[in-house]
Each structure stands twice: as C-alpha cells, then as structure tokens.
Amino acid sequence: MDALKAQRKSLRTAFAVAAKNVRQHLEVLEADGKDLGKLSSLYSQLDDKFSRLEVIQKEISSLLLEDTNTHSEFETDFEAAESYRDSYLELKTKVETSLKSSRGLMKCSSTDNAPKLKLPKFELEKFSGDPKEFLAFWSIFSKIHESDDLTEVDKFQYLYQCMVPESRAARLISIFPITNENYSKAIQQLKARFDREELLVQIYVRDLLSLVMKNVVAGRNSPDLATLYDMLETKLGTY
C-alpha cells in the first residue's frame, strides 16, 4: 500500500503540473485563438497522467475497503480522489469546447476567403401558350421549379413573369391567386393544356401538310425534300 501511495503522490504532482499548463494555454488561446496543436498536446499529457492515476487509485481504494480498520481512511481518500477527477473533467470540457469553437471559426474563415464561383445568369424563357414552345420554356423554368431555395410563392411569381402578357398561358394561370397551394395547381394546368404529345403531333402534321401545299401552289410537282427532311428531323427530335 505504501508503495502505491508513493506512486500516487508522484502522479498527483505531475497531474497538477499538467493541469496548470492546460489552464494557462486555455487563457492564451482565448486571447489570440492560435496554436491549437499545443493545446491538444498538453491535453493528451493531462489525459495520460489522469488515466495512470486512476489505475493506482482503484488499487488503493480496493485495499482500503478490504481492511475494516481503514474504512474511515477510505472516505477521506475517496474525497481527495474525487477532487482530482472533478478537476480533470472540468478541464476536459473546457478543452473540447475551446477546440471545437476554434476549429469552427477557422473553417468559417477559410470558407469566407475561398474564391467564389460566379455562375452565368440565364434569362427566363417567355411562354405565350404555343404548345411548340412549351418544351423550350420548361427546360429553363424547371430549374426554378426544382429549386429547394425558393418558396412556392416565389416560384409562382417567377412563373407569372415568364408568361407573355395577355397570352393564353397568362390567362390560364391568372385564375389562380398567388399562394403556396395554388402554385402546383397552376403548373398542372399548364402541363395539361400545353404539354400534350397528341396535340403536338396534330400541329406538326398540319405544318408538314402546309409545306407540301406551298410547293403545290408554287407549281412544283414534288416538295423540297431537303426542307421537308429538316423539318421532320426537328419536329421528331423534340420528343
């Protein structure tokens, strides 16, 4: 027991020195916020000494409990051991909080100083209500529609701005007041009215027939095959 107490005395002295160093460095860190590595190193030393101290303390406590004549000594010894444990836990909390706070500030600083990428702006496609224009309109507006940074009301405002004034599309969505709930309804109505494949097929067939009739009126026995091919490829490529 005497040998264990001698070891404990030395470790307690070493622990007190390590604790003092950590406290002093915490004060320095609060002043200038630098040298996190030094604080981590000092804390590791403190943690090592406390771990070794705990091992010896458990052995001494066990021996004191085994002897019925030393129960009163055990209580005094236990209180002294608890004071070291409390001191360790207090410093551990302060160090962890300080390191976390300092690293958070460093991360924010590095983020603020990082070069910011400027994305090119895109112009909103205007939509008049022509079904042939809907695909081009939606390919741009879908970026707004799928954005997580905008509210439904914000998206609805953008939708209004994309409508050609007094057009069929503008009249269609104007029946909906600008609210979060009505935005999805307005989008559904637009798609139901103008994003219809069967309607596009009818329009494209009509355009092709119109081209053929122009050739006939112009006195040509056969249509301009190159123009007809280009038109077919363009229309079919939109699907």
UniProtKB/TrEMBL annotation:
Name the UniProt record assigns to this protein:
Uncharacterized protein
Domain of life, per lineage? Eukaryota
List, alphabetically, the PANTHER family matched: PROTEIN CBG08539, RETROVIRAL PROTEASE-RELATED
